[in-house]
């Protein structure tokens, strides 16, 4: 498996350097030069070609949301995991809307951070389980794209809709493969295809769109 190129964006030098040193001990992670501000982050995103950005929400007087906006616009294939001391749900929801696929507290251990980075690189993501339900509720209730959800889902093939229903049901890739009688690689391909058709960046966004369009856990597929 190819090593995962990781860009840490954090203006707290000691924390960022300690995190880089710890993650650098993981054999499958390549840690790129650290960025301490928005300008440096965007420059390195262009030159170093990271697969995953680990992003703090507070960058001095700047906001990590600005990085999210620019990364989504200029580097749509890059996955962003937020690692922050903030616990504000509104900011979490804004970050997900702007393309973040993970949200972690800086109090979490390095093993979990490394695991979420790996998940993000595989088109997965992670939101703290204790707030996931509320985050989904706010995304479903507040997104302005309500009217287009059903129309977008109509572009999916029957099999892609089945995979999406499994995602809404809370199944992981291996569980989806078992339910549908497919290989894990085939499930991954269907997932990537449906995300591309829906112009989305994460499973969480796809589940939110599906729920806005009327899909519910346990509903018949298709």
Automatic annotation (TrEMBL):
The keyword Lyase does not apply. Keywords: DNA-binding, Phosphoprotein, Transcription, Transcription regulation. It comes from the Bacteria. InterPro entries: CheY-like_superfamily, NreC/VraR/RcsB-like_REC, Sig_transdc_resp-reg_C-effctor, Sig_transdc_resp-reg_receiver, Tscrpt_reg_LuxR_C. It holds the Pfam family Response_reg. The modification 4-aspartylphosphate is found at residue 56. Residues 5-121 form the Response regulatory domain. Residues 149-214 form the HTH luxR-type domain. Transmembrane segments: none annotated. PANTHER family: DNA-BINDING TRANSCRIPTIONAL ACTIVATOR DEVR_DOSR (PTHR44688). This is Response regulator transcription factor. It comes from Actinomadura nitritigenes. The lineage of its organism: Bacteria, Bacillati, Actinomycetota, Actinomycetes, Streptosporangiales.
């Amino acid at each position: 498996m190819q090593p995962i190129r990781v860009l840490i964006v954090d203006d707290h030098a000691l924390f960022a350097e300690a995190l880089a040193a710890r993650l650098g001990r993981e054999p499958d992670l390549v840690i790129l030069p650290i960025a301490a501000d928005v300008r440096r982050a965007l420059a390195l995103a262009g030159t170093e070609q990271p697969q995953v950005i680990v992003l703090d929400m507070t960058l001095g007087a700047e906001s990590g949301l600005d990085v999210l906006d620019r990364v989504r616009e200029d580097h749509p294939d890059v996955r962003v995991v937020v690692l922050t001391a903030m616990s504000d749900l509104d900011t979490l929801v804004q970050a997900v809307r702007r393309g973040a696929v993970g949200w972690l507290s800086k109090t979490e251990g390095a093993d979990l951070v490394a695991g979420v980075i790996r998940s993000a690189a595989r088109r997965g993501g992670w939101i703290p389980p204790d707030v996931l339900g509320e985050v989904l509720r706010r995304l479903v209730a507040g997104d302005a794209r309500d009217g287009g959800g059903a129309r977008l889902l109509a572009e999916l093939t029957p099999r892609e809709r089945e995979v999406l229903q499994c995602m809404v049901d809370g199944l992981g890739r291996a569980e989806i493969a078992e339910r549908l009688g497919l290989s894990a690689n085939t499930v991954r391909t269907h997932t990537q295809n449906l995300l591309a058709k829906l112009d989305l960046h994460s499973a969480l966004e796809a589940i939110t769109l599906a729920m806005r369009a009327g899909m519910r856990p346990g509903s018949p597929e298709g």
